[in-house]
Design a protein that fits this description.
This protein is mainly beta and about 850 residues long. Among the domains are: about 90 residues, Phosphorylase Kinase, domain 1 (2-Layer Sandwich); about 190 residues, Transferase(Phosphotransferase) domain 1 (Transferase(Phosphotransferase), domain 1), CATH 1.10.510.10; about 270 residues, Neuraminidase, CATH 2.120.10. Helices cover about 15% and strands about 40% of the residues. The chain is built from eleven helices and 56 strands. A seven-stranded antiparallel sheet has the order 17-18-19-20-21-22-23, with no helix packed on it. Strands 1-2-3-4-6-5 form a six-stranded antiparallel sheet, covered by helices on one side. Strands 12, 32, 33, 34, 55 and 56 form a six-stranded antiparallel sheet that branches. Helix 3 runs antiparallel to helix 10 and helix 6 packs antiparallel against helix 9. The chain is globular and about 75 Å long.
């Protein structure tokens, strides 16, 4: 019986019903604790009768909730109410792909765009060992901002049962309601139809059917009955796409056919490979950079550093300034005038009302953010005496809105502090409101628009207290229109991620997305005429450029640049303030017995990978422009001797005798493992016997064997041991989630399982032992010299706190805090290495340096 409005399921108050189907009823509900609206799906009570089935569902729901991917719907909570299971997720605004397809086929460009996002979501799930099993247009949601979200991961587990052997097999008759059978059955893979065990390649078959339908407007497999459809899936090929739709490229036709191969071995073997192929067809690279696709070990760069590596790589694409041109109008190059000359990070900048003076906030060689005043004709910047403050906005009368006690976060760069107002003449600030992220003045200088976090959500308020927009992600760069009737802002779906859309909201709360789908969006301002919004944004294939968009959503390019830029302000006469950011990855080596550290950075993006036990040799990776398109493996003595390039690829491990370096040629598919000789010797390729290498390779103490994480087609990852150089790899663990470090004596290896438990497995085989005192928030650095305790760390913005943990008892002791001595413009640490005796260490960190420019001539 449907739930009535006002009733409660746990802490959730039902608002209205959204829909219903074979997998339950969906409601709009309000979370009374966090004061946000959510989607609540009440599952059929019959599912709760089988405890094993429900336990499997709960484990998979927890794993899906941990994905945190923009192309997968976010799961907030699961529970039961009066014996009925329910699941709570983010409330989406938009329509399903099924609804979109009711009007027919999609344009090829749009179909590819949606497909790339779907494969990104699948790739993220498959990497965690999660297979959807019920991919179909009904389970793909297109938001109003243009994002594609995959729905209902894990719910199909409730409609599955184990066979007599314990293997999980799909039930092809799960949907029996009239009008739903063909909708579900029509996207099954042949192995699902046969009731066989399925893996991630089954999702790729289902995706192929969906892409076929997006391009043709017709289903790939049709029939009068479910049996007819199943027979077509097993025996027939769908009609040619190019024959019915001449505008479809032949390469896209071949890609669809490759997805719809009957034999799983003949299909794409991963969603990652499929995304790459789609990106090639779209004429734009997908989410790929020399670092982002590199399988790495436990010392791998942290995820947001991967985005930084991508930014470093795209700089090579810019040989000079590329200007956007209007059709039929000869473009006049803008002129650039540098306003800053010091070393540091610039947070914000605004024109004073006269259009000549410029106020900006920056953190130079100190740890303090300050306000400065400068003019184009004066190379000196004058401090305004406001330390630990960041500029938010300047009113039409010249009064400043500033953030006091600014706490820096990013990306995107922002300050959280107390909003205060202060005259440019230098009077004391008057505090207005705490916890403000962004603010802007109304045109008359009387009111503020503010962005702040309240009850777990980020809100845009104008005036203060009146909520016009809110999100679970982030709202940045709010700017009130010259008429005061609307506010433009950047809507980031994920807090801590630059991706976003340019949006606008009027004073009644009517919100519109003007330009969406940007992989990076940083800064906007109204044009001099007030009929456009100028903003800095970019796609995956290049750095941020400047664009303009009207309130109706008509966008145009203003200018491109060699490096990414952030837009801060536009004056009444069309001058712009922007920063050009320079990103570099730096590498430091140190010893606990010596007070000084040594900078071992080599080229532009040096990432430490392995440190010899005696601390005398460092294996590192060059992933930026200097490393080339495939990256480069380098070795260097820690005494400061010049580095030696061993070859291409991402280094993985250093042998105990320091004679060999293991590296992965990750740009090849599947990735290859190469042994580089550090001295005189021949390069050797390892035979993986058909395994796909996933990373985290280590040498065992005997120097004759390596451990690594890999997978057989259709299976989840396992840990393998391999005798070098040509023996066949042998698994030593069941299927796991992730491999950790091997003990110093080579007897044990840490792994995490699908339930986020940490276990120690004997390398020679045997039952695992639980590990205590370690959580997912810890980075496990390695074992002590006697293999009795573990080094773990908690990495913050510019430092890492290292602890020693006894895995048998969970007892934890603080050991040391490490980080760069010069924290100027440091975004954060990305990797940390320790020798087993704790006497030597190395770490890498990203530094963002910016220069402020005044730009004339943008039209």
């Amino acid at each position: 019986m449907p739930l009535s409005s006002g009733s409660h399921v746990g802490p959730y108050e039902i608002v209205s019903q959204i829909g219903a189907g074979g997998m339950g009823e969906v409601y709009r509900a309000r979370d009374s604790r966090l004061r946000r609206e959510v989607a609540l799906k009440v599952l059929p009570s019959s599912f709760a009768a089988d405890r094993d089935r429900l336990n499997r569902f709960e484990r998979e729901a927890h794993a899906t909730a941990a994905l945190n991917h923009p192309n997968i719907v976010s799961i907030y909570d699961i529970g039961t109410e009066n014996g009925t299971p329910y699941i709570v997720s983010e409330l989406l605004q938009g329509e399903t792909l099924r609804q979109r397809l009711r009007s027919g086929a999609l344009p090829v460009r749009k179909a590819i765009e949606y497909s790339i996002e779907i494969t990104h979501g699948l790739s993220a799930a498959h990497a965690k060992g999660i297979v959807h099993r019920d991919l179909k247009p009904e389970n793909l949601f297109i938001t109003k901002d243009g994002w594609v979200k995959i729905l209902d991961f894990g719910l199909v587990r409730l409609a599955e049962c184990p066979d007599s052997t314990g293997a999980t097999r799909s039930m092809p008759t799960e949907a029996t309601e009239p009008g739903m059978v063909l909708g579900t059955v029509g996207y099954m893979s042949p192995e699902q139809v046969r009731g066989q065990v399925v893996d991630r390649r089954s999702d790729l078959f289902s995706f192929g059917g969906i892409l076929y339908e997006m391009l043709s407007g017709k289903r790939a497999f049709e029939g009068n009955t479910a049996a007819d459809v199943m027979s077509a899936i097993l025996k027939e090929d769908p009609p040619d796409l190019t024959g019915s739709s001449p505008g479809i490229p032949p390469g896209l036709e071949r890609l669809v056919r490759h997805c719809l191969e009957k034999n799983p071995e003949d299909r794409f073997q991963s969603a990652h490979d499929l995304a790459l192929a789609l990106g090639t067809l779209s004429g734009a690279s997908t989410r790929v950079s020399a670092l982002s696709e590199a399988p790495t070990g436990n010392s791998r760069p942290r995820p947001w550093r991967i985005a930084v590596a991508g930014l470093a790589l795209v700089a090579v694409l810019g040989a000079g300034l590329l200007l956007g041109r209007r059709v039929g109008v000869k473009a006049v190059p803008p002129s650039f005038h540098p306003l800053t000359f010091r070393r540091g990070t610039i947070f914000s900048a605004r024109f004073a009302p006269d259009g000549e003076n410029v106020i900006y906030s920056a953190r130079w060689e100190t740890d303090h953010t300050q306000l400065f005043l400068t003019r184009p004709e004066n190379p000196e910047s004058r401090p305004l005496g406001l330390t630990d403050s960041s500029l938010l906005a300047i009113s039409s009368s010249g009064e400043m809105a500033i953030s006091l006690g600014c706490q820096v976060n990013g990306p995107p760069l922002r300050c959280r502090g107390t909003l205060a107002r202060v005259a440019m003449g230098g009077s004391a600030p008057r505090e207005i409101l705490e916890g403000v992220l962004y603010a802007d003045w109304s045109p008359d200088g009387k009111d503020f628009a503010v962005v702040r976090r309240e009850s777990g959500r980020v809100r845009l308020e104008f005036p203060i207290g009146k909520v016009l927009a809110e999100t679970d992600g982030l709202i940045s760069s709010p700017r009130i229109s010259p008429k005061g009737d609307a506010i433009a802002f950047i809507d980031h779906p994920i807090n801590g991620d630059n991706r976003g859309s340019v949006a606008m909201v009027d004073l009644r709360g009517n919100r519109r997305t003007l330009s969406g789908g940007w992989s990076s969006a940083e800064g906007l301002a109204w044009s001099p005429s007030g009929d456009e919004i100028w903003f800095a944004a970019g796609k995956e294939e290049g750095p941020n450029a400047l664009y303009a968009v009207t309130s109706s959503g008509r966008a145009r390019l203003l200018a491109r640049f060699p490096r990414s830029v952030r837009l801060h302000d536009v004056s009444r006469n069309g001058r712009a303030l922007l920063t050009e950011d320079y990103l570099r990855e730096e590498l430091v080596f140190g010893s606990t017995s010596k007070p000084t550290e040594r900078d071992l950075s080599w080229l532009d993006f040096s990432v430490p990978i392995a440190l010899s036990p005696d601390g005398e040799m460092l294996l590192f990776y060059e992933g930026g422009i200097g490393g080339g398109t495939s990256g480069a493996t380098y070795i260097r003595k820690t005494d400061g001797s010049p580095a030696v390039k061993l070859g291409e690829g991402m280094p993985q491990a250093l042998s105990p005798d320091r004679r060999w370096a293991l590296s992965s040629l990750y740009t090849q598919r599947p990735p290859k493992l190469i042994l580089y000789s550090i001295g005189a010797g021949e390069t050797k390729a390892l035979n993986l016997a058909g395994l796909q290498y996933l990373g985290s390779a280590e040498w065992l103490a005997d120097g004759k064997r390596i451990l690594f994480q890999g997978t057989e087609p259709g299976h989840r990852p396992r840990v393998y041991v391999q005798q070098l150089p040509d023996a066949r790899p042998t698994p030593i663990t069941p299927e796991i989630a992730e491999k950790g470090p091997t003990s110093t004596d080579g007897r044990f290896v840490i792994v995490s399982d699908s339930e986020d438990r940490f276990l120690v497995y004997p390398v020679t085989g045997g039952r695992p032992i639980p590990v205590y005192g370690i959580t997912r928030a810890d980075d496990i650095l390695g074992w002590s010299a006697d293999s009795h305790f573990l080094y773990v760390c908690s990495i913050e913005m510019s430092s890492a706190k290292v602890y020693r943990v006894d895995p048998a008892t969970g007892h934890r002791n603080f050991w040391k805090e490490l980080g760069p001595r010069d924290a100027t413009a440091v975004l954060g640490l990305n990797s940390l290495l320790l020798t087993p005796d704790g006497k030597s260490y190395a770490f890498g960190y990203a530094r963002q340096l910016g220069d402020l420019y005044l730009v004339d001539g943008l039209k």
